[in-house]
Write a structure and sequence with these properties.
Chain lengths: ~400, ~230
């Protein structure tokens, strides 16, 4: 195995120049680390967004007045749209045979909620139909969600997130207690399962109240009204959306030759739009950090050029005793690839660590991805080959006589 | 068939506007088992001739047959194989790998020859014992004396059982007494059947050979027979 022997020659040459090899390695490590950090942070971020959006469920879509705004023109058009009406929910229920459940949701922010002397500010209030619990991924931890009757009657009951429990009831069971949202009293009937914070937003600082109660206390929703619709199955999701579209166009008197003046969002469409919006940011970030990778490659090339010049005589000796061009080529190529792949492996490890720290800072979870490992190793060995080939060819093509007489 | 047969060898260096003719038609024949010295003042072309005979370089014109093979027309990698199998070099400056042990230095040609590890270590050890360095195998060149270094180089030259041993001023960098020992070693190797070509400018070194070629201005000026080839 001549290549193994040549590989070992490369290793011992690198070892003989430890400091220089180490510094070169550092150049690659910095490059790969920054790229992997950015890639794993972006991946973790996108993954968190995905899991957040997936809470909607694959068969659910949301009817929204504005939808996802992608451009200024979109915005100028969408801002003119009529608000959604509460009666649409019943209309969809009548006109959409593939729809299983329909829920209304309005939201507001309560400036202050109180229990005895304890207060909490800026709590997200969701006024929803009782069906919402069957549509979105929101599990009950303790107690229960409110019933259809409680919604219908506009009862003052509240289903609260864990932040409410922790802040207002540190030492007692909140169920059955009466809190004040503004000046209106609500009885706590259940506690939601913890969702965790995402992107600095505490998803557990929330109170669900029945939709009709919300209308009484916070006023009729206008622009803050959404309709959540769950199709009977994945297979009929498109049918359900079409049937809903027909109903809404009729109710909103949209002429047949005009586009919808409302939007329907699925988890998939939201994610796709989000990906489209963040595409340039993601590509840009990776692109900018890739510059450091190129710098790492240039360092390798530079060092290998110096090394070839320094070892001209050694190359001459090797050639005089029978080393062929490819023997020399491979020795130097091995050296640059060892440097780049070694730096790459270390860079991947550090990068994933830093990536997870970054992700941790904005409260997202991330699992190390195979993609970034393979990408890192692939890119770094590619860099070693790309930047190493020229110096190695230069060494391989040296004339033995000239190389031997080099001082 | 002669081991070496050159016919009208020319080597011309292009130095921009002027062309320098280092060799101007050298023809010679060297039989297997012979011991030749090439002598000449510096600039005479003797180093160029040695480079051509050693297949380190190719002639501008003329033909060179080594062991019946026309090496003057060969490519780089073919020449590398010839150097690996047919020629053993001994240089004035030893040209050892400074950070490798004597054993690894001697083993190196066999690595490029593609020999298995066990076999080449055996051969390398044997070659070092032949030059009386069996005790110094694991020493690096800087731990060895000049004479010992040159003997490592000779072991490396011998390890592949080459057809030709080519020595360029082998005693140039060592003291006279050690130089005598090295020359004695060459004579011993010659007695064992090795073909040796020695390039030197010292008359008493050249006297060890059977024949001496005197080179001047790129031509063989005269040939002197010191003693009959045995």
């Amino acid at each position: 195995m001549i290549y193994w022997d040549i590989f070992m020659m490369a290793v011992s040459a690198l070892w003989a120049n430890r400091l220089r090899s180490g510094l070169t390695l550092l150049g690659v490590i910095i490059g790969v680390t920054s790229v992997i950090t950015i890639i794993s942070a972006i991946e973790g971020f996108m993954g968190s967004v995905q899991s957040e959006i997936d809470k909607l469920g694959p068969t659910t879509f949301i009817v929204d007045r504005m939808g996802m705004i992608m451009s200024e023109d979109d915005f100028l058009e969408a801002i003119k749209r009529k608000p959604l009406e509460i009666e649409y929910a019943d209309a969809i229920a009548d006109g959409c045979k593939d729809c299983e459940k329909i829920a209304l949701q309005a939201y507001s922010f309560a400036p202050e909620i109180k229990y005895r002397d304890k207060k909490l500010r800026n709590v997200y209030i969701r006024g929803t139909s009782s069906e919402i619990i069957d549509i979105v991924e929101q599990e009950v931890d303790q107690g229960r969600f409110f019933s259809h009757e409680e919604d219908h009657d506009g009862r003052h009951v509240a289903f609260v997130g864990t932040t409410i429990q922790k802040q207002l009831f540190p030492n007692s069971d909140p169920i059955g207690k009466r809190i004040k949202i503004g000046n209106i009293k609500y009885d706590i009937i259940g506690i939601a399962k913890e969702q965790g914070a995402t992107f600095g937003h505490d998803a557990d600082k929330v109170i669900f109240v029945p939709f009709n109660t919300f209308v009484k206390d916070f006023g009729e929703p206008r622009r803050n009204l959404h309709i959540y619709v769950k199709a009977k199955s994945m297979a009929v999701l498109d049918n359900a959306m079409d049937q809903t579209r027909v109903v809404l166009r009729a109710y909103r008197h949209v002429p047949y030759d005009k586009d919808d003046d409302f939007s329907m969002l699925t988890a998939e469409s939201i994610m796709n739009q989000f990906k489209a919006i963040t595409k340039f940011m993601r590509v840009g970030l990776v692109g900018i950090t890739s510059i450091s990778l190129v710098v790492g490659g240039i360092i390798i090339m530079n060092i290998m050029m110096v090394s070839v010049t320094e070892r001209t005589r050694e190359i001459g000796i090797r050639k005089s005793i029978g080393a062929r061009q490819k023997d020399i080529l491979f020795q130097f190529l091995f050296e640059s690839v060892i440097l780049s792949v070694g730096g790459g492996a270390i860079g991947i490890a550090i990068g994933m660590l830093l990536g997870s720290v970054l992700i941790g800072l904005i409260n997202m979870d991330m699992s190390p991805s195979m993609l970034s490992i393979l990408l890192g190793l692939g890119i770094s060995s590619g860099i070693g080959l790309f930047f190493g080939i020229y110096p190695a060819l230069k060494a391989a093509r040296l004339q033995p006589v000239k190389a031997l007489s080099y001082e | 068939m002669a081991l070496i047969e050159t016919n009208d060898l020319w080597k011309t260096y292009d130095m921009g506007k002027v062309q320098v003719h280092a060799l101007r038609g050298v023809s010679m024949k060297i039989e297997k088992g012979d011991y030749i010295a090439i002598m000449g003042p510096s600039g005479s072309g003797k180093s160029t001739l040695m480079n051509l005979i050693g297949c380190l370089d190719t002639p501008t014109n003329g033909t060179y047959h080594l062991n019946g093979k026309l090496v003057s027309e060969m490519h780089d990698d073919e020449l590398a194989e010839i150097r690996n199998r047919e020629i053993g070099f001994v240089f004035q400056t030893f040209n050892l790998m400074p950070r490798s042990t004597a054993l690894h230095n001697v083993e190196l040609p066999l690595i490029y020859g593609g020999m298995s590890r066990e076999e080449r270590l055996n051969k390398a050890r044997h070659a070092l014992e032949t030059v009386n360095l069996g005790e110094r195998m694991m020493h690096q060149p800087n731990e060895l004396s000049g004479g010992q270094r040159q003997r490592v180089a000779i072991a490396r030259a011998l390890v592949n059982d080459p057809s030709l041993l080519l020595a360029d001023e082998p005693t140039g960098n060592i003291d006279t007494k050690t130089g005598d020992e090295i020359m004695e070693l060459f004579s011993e190797l010659h007695r064992r059947g090795n073909t040796i070509i020695l390039v030197t400018h010292e008359m008493d070194v050249a006297q060890h050979a059977n024949r001496i070629f005197y080179i001047r201005d790129g031509l063989i000026e005269k040939e002197e027979i010191v003693r009959k080839a045995s």
